[in-house]
Amino acid sequence: MIARDWQGMVLGAWAVPSSSCLNPKQKESMALRMAMRMAKLQGWKKVVFEVDCLQVVEELNREGKDRIGSVMIENIRSLRKNFDECCFTFTRRVNNYVSHTLAKMAVSLENLAECKVDFPA
């Protein structure tokens, strides 16, 4: 995950190891939940989360009683309440190069890696 300010300047980047074999929707949901927790720890109040899994974004943005949510999706919806403004948008992986590079790096990690100055991509 990578965090940027409103001008696009990088605030920080994190690579989180994961040893489980999940489908892309589950992986993206877990990464989003971790990003939301990290944003909360940083004290950010107005956030936009860019996600490269359209299914996750559509499910999170679906309103009404007909929405079908997993436990993870409902957990993310609950975390949304920690922010004054919070939205989820879809971005294609090709537009999310740094985040994708961090995800590839995370495969070989044993612990969370945090970058504040030098970034791997």
Explain what this protein looks like in three dimensions.
α1 (24-42) packs parallel to α3. The strands form 2 sheets. The protein has a 3-stranded antiparallel sheet with strand order 1-2-5, covered by helices on one side. A two-stranded parallel ribbon has the order 3-4. It has helices at residues 24-42, 54-61, 71-79, 97-106; strands at residues 2-4, 10-15, 46-51, 85-90, 113-115. The chain has 121 residues and is an alpha+beta fold. It is built from 4 helices and 5 strands, in the order ββαβααβαβ. 38% of the residues lie in helices and 20% in strands. The chain has a single domain, classed as Ribonuclease H-like superfamily/Ribonuclease H (Nucleotidyltransferase, domain 5, 2-Layer Sandwich).
Brief descriptors of the model:
20% strand; 5 strands; 4 helices; 121 residues; alpha+beta; two-stranded parallel sheet; 3-stranded antiparallel sheet; Nucleotidyltransferase, domain 5
Task: Give a brief description.
The protein contains four helices and five strands, in the order ββαβααβαβ.
